[in-house]
From TrEMBL:
Its main location: cytoplasm. This is Ascorbate-specific PTS system EIIA component. Keywords: Cytoplasm, Kinase, Phosphoprotein, Phosphotransferase system, Sugar transport, Transferase, Transport. GO terms for biological process: phosphoenolpyruvate-dependent sugar phosphotransferase system. It comes from Streptococcus suis. The phosphoenolpyruvate-dependent sugar phosphotransferase system (sugar PTS), a major carbohydrate active transport system, catalyzes the phosphorylation of incoming sugar substrates concomitantly with their translocation across the cell membrane. The enzyme II UlaABC PTS system is involved in ascorbate transport. It is found in: Cytoplasm. The keyword Transcription regulation does not apply. The lineage of its organism: Bacteria, Bacillati, Bacillota, Bacilli, Lactobacillales.
Amino acid sequence: MKKSPFLRVGNQRNLLPLITYGKVTESYVNEMIQTVKDLGPYVVITKSIVLPHARPEAGAKELAISVGVLQSPVNFGNHENDPVKYVFGLSALDSHTHLEVMSELIDLLEEDKFYHLLDSAGIAEEIVDYKRFSLHVA
């Protein structure tokens, strides 16, 4: 059986900060993976960007987002937006907050400078400092 692209993304440690810093439970990440298996590549939200998330009751503990850049981009089966290079793992406690965070992220993704920062940032704080998110970066 072919390994899910989402599993490959998760295995590259881009979602682990959400668990490591206590923002979500391991079951939350497992639910992210299962949702992609069940529903397909809907989490690929724009060119090169994947935003995995799950329902809050799956194990979201607080509002957080993890940011990762893949060394080897991954195809999710979204022909318009593959390959995925940037991974933003989202934990939100309700749908209202989820939509607010997505709106802020979409604004950032319209800026070419933000992509350059993603490629060159050494630590997550550099990304947060670029454009103050109203959320905690894991």
